[in-house]
Each structure stands twice: as structure tokens, then as C-alpha cells.
Predict the 3D structure of the following.
Amino acid sequence: MKEKQKTGNWFWDAVYPRRCPVCDGLLSQKEPYLCRNCVEKIHPIHGARCKKCGKPVEDEAEFCRDCSRTRHSFDRGFAPYSYHGELEASLMRFKYHERQEYAGFYAHAACRYVGSQIRRRNAEVLVPVPIHPARRRYRGYNQAEVFAKRLSEEFQIPMNAHLIRRVKRTKPQKELDPAERRKNLENAFALEKPGQMKYRRILLVDDIYTTGSTVDALAALLKKNGAVQVDFLCAAIVK
Ligand SMILES: [Zn+2]
Ligand SMILES: [Zn+2]
């Protein structure tokens, strides 16, 4: 299996040369994830993290400002990076400009920096945050699903990208304030097969965590249908 994967990678590397997720330059065989100029440019979250959403907190506070005020429907959140600097442009290319290959870098980082915490949560399945089918057709892929697929290989946890579908074409969340965000997401998601949810511990996967309203809407839906633990993992979290 391992050997086959290696051969597969070699083939794909020749057809689609791998690129550095930070500067987008081509990677050599000796640079598995980042080019040598970018290795020192980005750093994972270190130090104290919010015990709820996982974002960095100052002065050893237990929860971030948001989580101490907001009642979230999800249980725990994990992210290797905070969303700033070089990673903003990287994640934009990953999401909108066909750089699906960056998923390998982000999945590896998640495994390396938050992997042990994730494993302790014992999720049965990885569920990518769905995008509306019209948006998927336009963009060609769902970056959360591409990311979840690589995570599934890293963590050896199955992925189910067909558990939930997005039934409402929502406005981009970034244009809205928190109350509008929640309103925007009302009835935005539905189970693909209502009444047949078999998972109890679920790990939602997305590229970026901003206010948590999307993850909350999904967690509430899943818990209404029998889930007892709904966590999320994203590549980067907004501070
Ligand atoms: Zn680079
Ligand atoms: Zn928090």
C-alpha cells in the first residue's frame, strides 16, 4: 500500500508539480511541504489555547473572549495555525484558485501540531463542511472536502462527505455581523438521509474558523440527530 502510494505521488508530481503553500513556488523532491525559504516564515500556534475553540489566548486565560460570552453548539475546536500573514493568501489560493494540493501540507500540520489531541477525542468520522452544489459547480471542488480527504489518510479515520448537504445558498459570511451570520445559516443545512444518522462522535472539517456560526449550525443539526460529540478541525483559526 505504502509503495503504491509512493509511485502514485511520483507520477502526480511529474504531471502536477507540487508548490509551496506559502510562496506558491515549485518544490523540489527534497522539500516535502514548504520550500526552504518559507520554512521559517510560518509558525504553528504555541502557548495557551482556548479550551473550547482552540484559538490562542493571552495570560493563560481558560477561554477566549468569544467563547466566554457565546454558547457554542460544538464541543471542541482544533487548528494548527492562526489565520494571519502569509497563510491568508495561501488559504485563498487553496479555496478559490485551484491549489488543492496545499491540503497535504495542512493535513500534515494538523497531524503534527494537534494530532494527539484529536486522537484522544476518538471521532468515528470526518465530515467536511458542505458548500452549496451551485457553488461547487462554479468552483470545481469543495476545499473542506479536499482537506478532509487528506486528513482521513493522515488520521486513518473515514470521511463522509455525503452526510450533510447545504440546501440554502447563503450569502458569504464575511460580509455579515454575528447575528446576521446566524440568521443567514438558519435551515441552511440538512441531513442527506434524515433519520439515519449512525455517528455519535463527529469531527467537522473546514479550512478557516471565523466566528463559529457555521460549525455551530452543523453541530446543532447533528446533535438533534443523535450525535453526542461534535468537534471541529480547521487549517487556521481567526484570532
Ligand atoms: Zn515557499
Ligand atoms: Zn474560544
